[in-house]
Amino acid sequence: MPIKHSYAGYYTAAEAMKVLGVTDGMFYNFIRNKDLEGTKLPGRKQNLYKKEDVDRMARELQAFIIQRKAHKATKFVKITTREEMREAMEISHALFGVGLDVLNERMELLAKNPDTYYVLKAEDDMIVGYTSIMPLKPGNLEKALGLTLPVKVEIDDIAEFEYGSHIDLYLTAIGVRPGFSTAEKHAYGAKLLSGLIEAIIDLGKRGVIIDSIAARSHTGDGIRLMRHAGFTEIPSLTPERRTFIIKVEESGIPFVMHYKNALKEALARDAAAPSPTSEASPSQSKSKTSRSRRSQEAQSQ
Questions:
Q1: Least buried of 88, 143, 189, 255, by fewest C-beta within 10 Å?
Q2: 89 and 209 share a domain?
Q3: What is the pLDDT, as a whole number, of residue 132?
Q4: Cross-strand pairs, 233
Q5: In total, how many domains does the chain have?
Q6: Kindly report the CA angle at 255 between 266 and 67, in degrees rounded to 5?
Q7: In this structure, what CATH number is given to the domain that contains residue 120?
Q8: CA-to-CA distance for 143 and 137, rounded, in angstroms?
Q9: Residues 33, 86: one domain?
């Protein structure tokens, strides 16, 4: 009696190509490059391919495509209108249960410092995610970290981004609109984080001195993000959120080093610039004397 073989855990080449969504040429390139290995089972003349390997590769390809799409088709911009803020607060409400009830307070904060709320927009201008930062005057960070949700920082505690000023930066939120696949969520989240890092580096270019960067989270994704970014966890001041911090002066985290280098260059440029009250050079003095003499001659004629 012939032995029956089960191929339930395998795809044929044609089935694998369909799952991967690739052409014959691309599929056999995967095999030549050993990205995918075939198995010749008893009773089969052609190789079969493990479903788990093909399915994993399909997920990786899909994630790569989504990331490329997110990179090309999205833009990270400041919130400038009440409607954009309302959409951001809708995302906040869906993710964290707060937001819509503090719309007015957030617009007040934006009026005090317009570089505090950002959104990620897709190609069709739909807002797919947002992030926010609260720049705090020195001495107010611990008070802010002790607030329960929704966080309502007093407007007088919010700092403006001025050259040479010291601030503490509280990263209050980063979130992607619900409804996307896991791969899309990760791609959009990465773009939000990248935009946020660029915004922090830009503060260095503007000569804003950040002493500490703090954040809180209670979600698995948020906690992993903080740890991956290099934050240090400290005892929480509230039971609802875990607290993380970066002491900027001591930190060697890559993005913080980029910020510190940008700040150093900004401060060095200012130090090298001639003071408007400094004495004029001999040539400048001579030029001024000549202009004065010509002016006097013109007046006497």
A1: 143
A2: yes
A3: 96
A4: 244
A5: 2
A6: 125
A7: 3.40.630.30
A8: 11
A9: no
159-169 burial string, b = 16+ CB within 10 Å, else e? bebeeebebbb
Residue with tokens 């198995």: 39
Provide the pairing of β-strand 209-217 with 166-176.
Answer: parallel
Beta carbons of 257 and 199 less than 8 angstroms apart:
no
User: Where would I find the beta strands (DSSP E) of the chain?
Assistant: 10-11, 49-50, 75-78, 117-121, 127-136, 166-176, 209-217, 232-234, 242-247
Q: Are residues 236 and 121 in the same domain?
A: yes
From 72, 93, 109, the end of a domain falls on 72
Is the model's pTM score more than 0.85? Answer: no
Tens of pLDDT, residue by residue over 53-94, are 998 888 877 766 655 655 557 899 999 999 999 999 999 999
The three-class DSSP label of residue 114 is: coil
- Stretch 258-275: mean pLDDT, rounded? 90
Residues 212 and 197 in one domain: yes
Asked if residue 127 lies in contact with residue 95, where contact means CB atoms within 8 angstroms, the answer is no
Structural domain containing residue 115: 74-271
Residues 100 and 170 in one domain: yes
Q: For residue 286, is it within any domain?
A: no
